[in-house]
Every structure is written in C-alpha cells, then in structure tokens.
Amino acid sequence: MEVIQENFGTTQDQDIVAYTLVNSKGMEVSAINYGAIITCIMAPDKEGILEDVVLGHDTLEDYLKDTNYLGAIAGRVAGRIQGGSFELDGQEYTLAKNDGNNHLHGGNKGFNAVVWDAEVIEEEEHCGVKFSYVSADGEEGYPGKVEVMVTYLLNDENRLSISYSAKSDKKTLLNLTNHSYFNLSGNLKRDIQDHTLQLKSDQFLELNQELIPTGRAVNVQDTPFDLREGQKVKTGTTADYEQNKLAGGGYDHPFLLNTNQNKEIVLKDETSGRTLTVETDQKCVVVYSGNMLDSNGDFRDVPSRKHLGICLETQGVPDAIHHSQFPSVVLGADEEYRAHTTYTFGVE
C-alpha cells in the first residue's frame, strides 16, 4: 500500500499534485488537490487487465476548462437550487445563477474549482489522501465559514471509500458528493448504454423542465426508472417517457434509496466482467447518464459524446431547502456534517 506523488501543474499560484493510491493487487486511484478531483481509477477486468474506469484528463489545463465536474467534489450544495436563492431563519441569500435561472453544484467557483490542502495516509490496511478546504463566510453567497474534509482511502479488497466531514460557524446549507463518471468497459472502449444498473429504490423524484425536483416522488413501477431487478442503462436513454426525454435522453434524477450500506447500487459491464457496488449512508443517489456530454473535446484520446459515462452521485436530496417534505440539508452552527460512501470494484 503506497501513495505516489507527482507534480500536475500550477494554478492560483499553487502547486497541484497528483496523488496515486496503489494497493497490493495493483489497483490504482489517482486524485489531485484541485477540486479534490479523481482523475483515474485503474481496476481489473475478468482477465485481470487493469484499465481506467472513469472519465478524466491528463493535464491540469483540461480540468481548468472542464464544465462537466469530472471526478470533482460538488459543493457547498450538490445539484440545483431553484432560482439561485434560499431563505434561512428569515434571511434571503442570493447565489450565482450558473445554470440558466438556477444555481448548480456550488456556483461559479464551487468546491470543484478550488485548491485543497492534502495529507497523505499510508497504513497497513489502507492508503489514501485527506483533502481539506476552508470556505469563507459568504463564499458564493452562502453563510458561514465552513471547514471541510474529504478523505479517499483504498484498501486491498479494491474498495475505495470517500468520507466527508465539515463544520460551520453559522447555520448554512451543505450537501456534498463526488461527481465521477464511471465507464466499466475500460479505457472508454464503449459507452455505458449496455451497462446494467440495479438500484434498491422504489421512488424517484419528478423533475420540471429546468431539472429541478417538483416535490413529487413517483413510484418506479411500470416506468423506465424501475431498476430494482437491474436494467440496461439504454432502458432510460432510449425511452419514450417524458421524464427521460426532458433530461436529454436518459437519467438525471434523484432516486430515493430503500436501504443503506446494503449493496444498494450495483453497476455491471458484462463484456469486461467488471462490477461496481456502491454503498452509502445518504438518502438518495442522483443517477446522471451523461446526457449532456457533447462532442467537443475528448477524454484523454477518446472523443467526448453522450452517454460515455454515468455518475452515481450519493447525496442529500437536491433543492431540499425549497421542499419541507425532503430531508433537510441545513447544517447548524457547530454541528458536524458527516457522510460516507464506498465503491467496491469486482468481477464476475
């Protein structure tokens, strides 16, 4: 178990370092201290061949230009906030409208676009890196000085764990996630439409035309959102169903999880044999099937296109501040925010 450090460039007058976590089986997870971005995950297929299973870039310049939140930490609040504003204890807070009329993934300079401090972890049972960042009171319009830590750990069972913790000196909103795009084919040989996705979820949240939750939870039964027994992702990308069509042909929806820490999210690619099992303590997962990936640019040497990757964003419910029936994402002064998700890579 070791962590290899390499220079990845310079931005904001700060050095950007790539940290590569390596376990005894040869699996690797690489992340940089810009945006706490996961840049590469090398995982074995059924023949033992290690290949990259996430979308990424080779240069810092490409990440500085990226608009897809590739592999990054989204925050302070993941997802959209309707109208770019919210009220807390009678006070109105105005945020950047960086997604039409709405606020998305923390604003113009969210946690995906800042330089984090980093601390290497090398222990017998795992290796990793702990990223930390202090978000100033008023940053991107949010109240409170927030101290955030995100820890990536890799063990010898090919399990990557992401632990989030934070404290604020004022009541604020906080809802963090990692925005990696997975593609288990290896080195992006195919898109993700023939991947099988299984979710332990009986309900998804209906979206309006701006991709904001309407507040209505819909039963998945008899819809392309019924993934309880596992379905090909193309079930959603090709569906003649209004919710899939308004999302750009596919999924960009929160699914309410029936259970936690119980193999609640499983992604498989039959051709490579790779599997990804996601377990979390969060209320929901936003499944985004890469509907808005366009044909501009590329990911390393593979041209960008729709459905080249799928995000499994474990988090609190999006736009919860505007829906009292949703679990709250309000963090009180001096309360501790904690969240935990594991990603176990296997084969079958």
Key structural traits:
single chain, 348 residues, nine-stranded antiparallel sheet, Aldose 1-epimerase, Beta-galactosidase, Chain A, domain 5, mainly beta
Describe the structure.
This protein is mainly beta and 348 residues long. It has a single domain, classed as Distorted Sandwich (Beta-galactosidase, Chain A, domain 5). Helix content is 4%, strand content 44%. The chain has 3 helices and 30 strands. The strands form 8 sheets. A 9-stranded antiparallel beta sheet has the order 11-12-13-14-30-24-23-18-21. A 6-stranded antiparallel beta sheet has the order 17-28-25-22-19-20. A hairpin with a 3-residue loop joins strand 13 and strand 14. The two termini are 25 Å apart. The model has no long low-confidence stretch (mean pLDDT 97).
Topology of helices and strands:
Layout (H helix, E strand, L loop, with lengths): L1 E10 L2 E9 L5 E5 L5 E7 L5 E3 L7 H6 L7 E2 L5 E2 L3 E4 L2 E4 L8 E2 L12 E6 L3 E10 L10 E10 L3 E10 L3 E2 L3 E2 L2 E2 L13 E4 L3 E5 L5 E7 L11 E2 L1 H4 L4 H5 L5 E5 L8 E4 L5 E7 L3 E5 L9 E2 L2 E2 L6 E6 L14 E2 L4 E12 L1
Antiparallel strand pairs: 1-2, 2-3, 3-4, 4-5, 6-16, 7-10, 8-9, 11-12, 12-13, 13-14, 14-30, 15-29, 17-28, 18-21, 18-23, 19-20, 19-22, 22-25, 23-24, 24-30, 25-28, 26-27
Please, how many domains? 1
User: What is the CATH T-level topology?
Assistant: Beta-galactosidase, Chain A, domain 5
Largest sheet: 9 strands, antiparallel
Q: Kindly name the structural category.
A: mainly beta
Low-confidence region ranges: none
What is the C-alpha radius of gyration, as a whole number of Å? 19 Å
CATH class: Mainly Beta
Helical fraction equals under 10%
* SS summary, helix count: 3
Overall geometric form: globular
Amino-to-carboxy terminus distance? 25 Å
Beta-strand residue fraction? 35-45%
Average pLDDT: 97
Number of separate strands: 30
State the CATH architecture: Distorted Sandwich
The neighbouring-strand order within the major sheet is 11-12-13-14-30-24-23-18-21
